[in-house]
Amino acid sequence: MLLGGIRYLLPVIKAAREQGYHVITADYLPGNIAHAYSDEYVNVNITDREAVLKAASRCHIDGIMSFGVDPGVVSAAYVQEKLGLPSFGPYHSVEILQNKDAFRGFLAKNGFNVPRHASFSSSGEALSVCGGFRYPVIVKPTDSAGSKGVTRVDAPEAIEPSLREAFAHSLKGRVIVEEFIEKAGFSSDSDAFSIDGKLQVVNFNAQRFDAAAPNPYVPSAYTWPSSFTPAQESGFSAEIQRLLTLLEMKTALYNIEVRLGTDRCPYLMELTPRGGGNRLSEMIRISTGADMITAVTRYAVGDSFEAPVAAAPRGYWAEIILHAPASGRFRALWLHPDIRSYVVEEDLWVGPGEAVRAFKGANDTIGTLILHFPDRGMMEEVVASQESWIQIQIIDN
Questions:
Q1: How much is the pTM?
Q2: What angle do CA 234, 236, 242 make, to 5 degrees?
Q3: Side by side, which strands form the sheet with 390-395?
Q4: What are phi and psi of 181, to 5 degrees?
Q5: Of the candidates 342, 366, 370, the residue with the CA atom closest to the CA atom of residue 224
Q6: Are 291 and 285 in contact (CB under 8 A)?
Q7: Which of 77, 129, 214, 236 is deepest in the core (most CB within 10 A)?
Q8: CA–CA distance from 320 to each of 235, 283, 325, 361, 370 (Å)?
């Protein structure tokens, strides 16, 4: 059983069907694209763990996971524990990883680098405390994904609208405010894999953003290799391993975001036992050959699997997250003729005349573009000045 119905489930469904598995997708939106590719659909609210447990029991499933879908991760862990299915880690550990407030508290308690932070259940409570923070700060829901409801605030007097936005996107009505960690180089948002709690594959990239987008904190591109030195990557790997050991995690695929602060300290910003959105596991498979998707799919139902092998990217890679410069109707994707030879895959999700939205969250993505370059210089030139090389043309509403 796969919780959710978004496009990022399609490679998991493909891998599962290649293994001969019967695939059930589940959420409360029957029109979601993944349901057209699964063998069976169940209508259930994936944030309701008891409802998911009942559906899973009724379907006599052998395994369950939430891939690229944050709201289903805790419910999947709950069902794994209750039905004795292969699990990614203890349920209480998954709860910690999925709640930004609990995660920051766990990091601080165990000696990890962590920004000053506090969580709140009301704007009034937050306003009474946040004046004492060192600005800028980041305001975000404790339980949402895809950068929805996330804003940066540069002064105390500007925080109230950001609190309203964060509360509007929180499932449980709770937000976290944390001091902003200025990064050295680029942050990394990539996927990793552990076997029996030991890191088997850990991958780092350079996460890019579109400063002109309505929400400049939604990732708009990724490049490989990362901007970290080998020593810095080893330091991050050691901290990730320490966290997995403390939480008694098992065999799992993770989405992990890290950054190196200007204070030269490594920070674990996010770590969750699910594949990341934006096709990150696919990008690792394409650029290194490590197939974590098939491995986690086989593990989830209790079958043996071929361990994915850690490897460095073969050359220089970029994934562009295609998005519209403003809301309107899609007209065309334009690529500069000089970069067409670098394009490995063009995956466009909209057609001419279809409505597109301004880029405020990951759910506003309209496709992806994968490129392979012969050298870092050309890669950096294209990614740093995307508007000159890649354009989403729209018709204003």
A1: 0.91
A2: 105
A3: 355-356, 328-335, 390-395
A4: -90, 105
A5: 370
A6: yes
A7: 77
A8: 28, 11, 14, 15, 6
Provide the pLDDT confidence category of residue 202 given band limits of 50, 70 and 90.
very high
Tell me, what's the pLDDT at 69? Answer: 93
- pLDDT of amino acid 101: 86
- Angle 186-259-129 (CA atoms, 0-180°, nearest 5)? 120
CA distance 370 to 286: 10
Contact (Cβ atoms closer than 8 angstroms) between residue 201 and residue 290: yes
How close are the terminal C-alpha atoms of the chain, in Å? 40
Residue with tokens 């992806």: 368
Say whether pLDDT at 167 is over 70: yes
Spatial CB neighbours of 130, under 8 Å, sequence gap ≥ 6: 118, 137, 156, 159, 177
Residue 334, pLDDT > 80, answer yes
- DSSP three-state, residue 320: strand
Which residue segments constitute the domains of the chain, with CATH numbers given? Answer: 2-85 (3.40.50.20), 116-179 (3.30.1490.20), 188-395 (3.30.470.20)
pLDDT at 147 over 70: no
